């Protein structure tokens, strides 16, 4: 629809509209040129990251950023890293892990083998947390954890298993509140480079690149965990990703979401039953 203006000059509405057009062109250009699809990410979240990258590149417009991204892959890499949401911690939201331990673990005990998908695993803190929990419950040896993210840089960090020592006090407290059965310090060694977690915690973990926006289902899982990722997608993309999770979960499989997320719209509400409404744990029943 074409918008008409009595006066184009100095129009705040025009400036806002122009900015949206520039961002749309930027995202479309990235998709057409490189195959990364951020077109259905939540607009305000994407806008903050675009403006941040534009300012850090010392550019005066988003159009200039588009030009630089299309001709310089290093700039693209920096922008894509900005789009990757990497806010995480070990045993984040301890009550979630406590409910998982108390309500989901008994279900998993009935399976001869277990497949878990951590979608959007970021730097891996929650992957290591789940490995510890499964180890303490005697299920780790029969479990395969698939930890995926579209950002290869954070996957490399996750594989290394090295984290800042200053985070350990908070992580220890989270671990205790989540029902931890050992001493948290037993799982890591302090080095000059930071805290290194014991190698056995990744013996049953596969770290791999996977893009929730463009990639398909790659296995059938007993558990899918995707916490605090969907909030950065628009409604249409949320529906698409929920379909991916539904297709990837086996019957009676468990879906775990973030504290601000839920089963989206009526298309999915009746195919799951709540395991824990408060902690956003659901069981596939249809």
Structure characterization notes:
One of its GO terms (molecular function) is S-adenosylmethionine-dependent methyltransferase activity. It comes from Ornithinibacillus halotolerans. This is Chemotaxis protein R. Residues 11-263 form the CheR-type methyltransferase domain. Mean pLDDT is 90; it is low at 1-8. It contains 10 helices and 10 strands. Helices cover 43% and strands 18% of the residues. A 7-stranded mixed sheet has the order 6-2-1-7-8-10-9. Strands 3-5-4 form a 3-stranded antiparallel sheet. Strand 4 (188-191) and strand 5 form a beta hairpin. The protein has helices spanning 12-34, 43-56, 62-71, 73-83, 94-108, 125-136, 152-160, 168-177, 235-248, 266-269, and strands at 114-119, 143-149, 162-163, 188-191, 194-197, 205-209, 221-226, 249-257, 272-276, 281-284. Helix 1 runs parallel beside helix 3 (62-71) and helix 3 crosses helix 4 (73-83). The protein is α/β, with parallel strands linked by helices. It has 2 domains: 12-83, no CATH class; 94-284, Rossmann fold.
């Amino acid at each position: 629809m074409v918008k008409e203006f009595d006066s184009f000059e100095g129009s705040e509405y025009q400036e806002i509209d122009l900015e949206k057009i520039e961002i749309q062109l930027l995202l479309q250009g990235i998709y057409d040129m490189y195959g990364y699809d951020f077109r259905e990410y939540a607009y305000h979240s994407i806008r903050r990251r675009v403006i941040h990258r534009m300012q850090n590149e010392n550019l005066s417009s988003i159009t200039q950023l588009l030009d630089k991204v299309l001709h310089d892959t290093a700039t693209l890499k920096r922008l894509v890293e900005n789009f990757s949401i990497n806010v995480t911690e070990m045993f984040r939201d301890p009550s979630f892990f406590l409910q998982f331990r108390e309500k989901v673990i008994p279900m998993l005990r009935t399976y001869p083998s277990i497949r878990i998908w951590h979608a959007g695993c970021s730097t891996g803190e929650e992957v290591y947390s789940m490995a510890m929990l499964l180890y303490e419950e005697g299920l780790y040896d029969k479990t395969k954890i698939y930890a995926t993210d579209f950002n290869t840089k954070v996957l490399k960090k996750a594989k290394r298993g090295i984290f800042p020592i200053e985070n350990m006090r908070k992580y220890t407290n989270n671990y205790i509140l989540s029902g931890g059965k050992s001493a948290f310090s037993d799982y890591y060694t302090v080095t000059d480079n930071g805290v290194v977690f014991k190698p056995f915690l990744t013996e049953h973990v596969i770290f791999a690149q996977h893009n929730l926006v463009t990639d398909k289902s790659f296995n059938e899982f007993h558990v899918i965990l995707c916490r605090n990722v969907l909030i950065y997608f628009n409604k249409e993309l949320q529906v698409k990703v929920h379909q991916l999770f539904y297709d990837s979960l086996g019957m009676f499989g468990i879906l775990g979401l973030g504290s601000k997320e839920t089963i989206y719209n009526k298309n999915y509400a009746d195919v799951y039953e709540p395991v824990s409404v408060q902690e956003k744990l659901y069981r596939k029943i249809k």
